[in-house]
Automatic annotation (TrEMBL):
HTH gntR-type domain sequence ranges: 25-93
Gene transcribed to yield this protein: araR_3
Name of protein: Arabinose metabolism transcriptional repressor
PROSITE patterns referenced in this protein's UniProt entry, alphabetically: HTH_GNTR (PS50949)
Pfam family, one: Peripla_BP_3
Assigned keywords, A-Z: DNA-binding, Repressor, Transcription, Transcription regulation
Source species, domain of life: Bacteria
Organism name: Sedimentisphaera salicampi
A molecular function (GO) term: transcription cis-regulatory region binding
């Protein structure tokens, strides 16, 4: 692992010779060559920050303008990139060839055949392919141990970057991503972050998903609204709170009796269906039956649809339904008809590949904590009735 900036400057062992060379040559040229040599020798990696101007001034005993002139030259030659408000970062290694080496970018997904994940993978693969990078697609099966094993394999293969949708239960530990970063492998999170890790996150505004769904239902006359989610975690908790706030702003309530959380992946299909039927029976019966349901994703909406049909209820005549899913994956009778808040997962996956490439080439810091929000839209299906 590369040393910190302070260690690098203090341990270089070249400072005495450097000061001597400054007596016969322009100081900024000597500093520029010194920094390039530090990069060439492996003391720095592309994407790593240079020492601060103040540190260079203090260690080398030169004026601020001299340091800035040296860095200006490095910027012009493509070795350094300035990031406003954050500092200067190395962008390439002088030992590498001008022709970009083949990179292998890895994408870790909880599943690869259902929901929004296949579209994300297609977008990632397409964008990586534009740069002639190979893609290693890995399925973690929502299993934290399997995810850890895959990360060890990525370290062994020395991949050029890892994008991941972190496993949920239990929560992904920080050391999963930190191990990659300690080996100078860029990490990008998709959908959700990992607590304690500074890495770019490409996601959407989860609160706005619930607000848009809630507003759509209220505008269509619905007052008794339920929320269904496959499992309880940070994102679905945001949904619940935002939906409750949106309804409250309209003088409505989201009582606990109208909220359902499943146990997540691993439940058998018959068990999942029965659980939703059991939850729906009291909600649709009685004096004040619900008239609509917001589901945390389209897969949950499909399960709820089956449960409603088993109970003899029609959509949207008896109960309206709104989900959340990918903008492009509206294939099949159900998804084509389902009204949903949507995100462009293809573009999200492509952006993840692009950000990884920026990090591996030094255009973006390895510890960037930028959050990139992708826009939401409403797909007007046929499952929300006006009442």
């Amino acid at each position: 692992m590369a040393k910190s900036s302070t260690e690098q400057i203090e341990l270089s062992g070249k400072l005495a010779g450097l000061r001597g060379a400054m007596r016969s040559r322009p100081k900024y040229e000597i500093i520029k060559e010194f920094l390039i040599e530090e990069l060439s020798s492996g003391n720095y990696q592309p994407g790593q920050a240079l020492p601060s101007e103040n540190m260079l001034i203090d260690r080398l005993g030169v004026a601020r303008n001299t340091v800035r002139n040296a860095i200006d030259e490095l910027v012009k030659e493509g070795y350094v990139r300035r990031v406003h408000g954050k500092g200067n970062f190395f962008t390439k290694n002088p030992n590498s060839s001008k022709e970009e080496q083949l990179a292998v970018l890895s994408l870790l997904l909880p599943e690869i055949s259902h929901g929004i994940y296949p579209v994300l993978a297609k977008g990632f693969d397409h964008c990586a392919g534009l740069k002639r990078h190979q893609v290693l697609l890995c399925n973690t099966d929502f299993n934290i141990s399997k995810q850890g094993d895959i990360i060890l394999q990525m370290l062994d293969k020395n991949v050029s970057g890892v994008a991941m949708v972190p496993a949920l239960k239990p929560q992904t530990p920080a050391y999963h991503a930190a191990q990659l970063q300690r080996h100078n492998i860029p990490v990008v999170f998709c959908h959700r972050p990992v607590a304690g890790v500074s890495a770019p996150l490409i996601t959407w505004d989860a609160a706005e998903v619930a607000k848009l769904a809630g507003r759509t239902l209220v505008e269509n006359g619905h007052k008794r609204i339920a929320y269904f989610a496959r499992t309880r975690y940070s994102l679905t908790a945001v949904h619940e709170n935002a939906l409750r706030q949106t309804l409250g702003d309209c003088g409505l309530e989201l009582p606990a009796k109208n909220i359902f959380y499943g146990n997540g992946p691993g439940e058998g299909p018959d068990y999942q269906l029965q659980k939703r039927m059991d939850a729906l029976k009291p909600m649709v019966g009685g004096a004040d039956p619900i008239t609509s349901i917001f589901c945390n994703d389209d897969e949950e909406a499909e399960l709820v649809q089956f449960a409603l049909k088993e109970l003899g209820l029609r959509i949207p005549e008896d109960v309206s339904l709104i989900g959340f899913g990918d903008r492009h994956a509206r294939n099949g009778v159900f998804l084509d008809r389902l009204t949903s808040v949507t995100i462009d997962e293809y573009e999200l996956g492509g952006r993840a590949a692009k950000v990884l490439d920026e990090m591996r080439t030094g255009q973006r810091p390895l510890d960037s904590d930028e959050v990139i929000y992708k826009p939401l839209a409403l797909y007007q299906g046929k499952t929300v009735a006006q009442i």
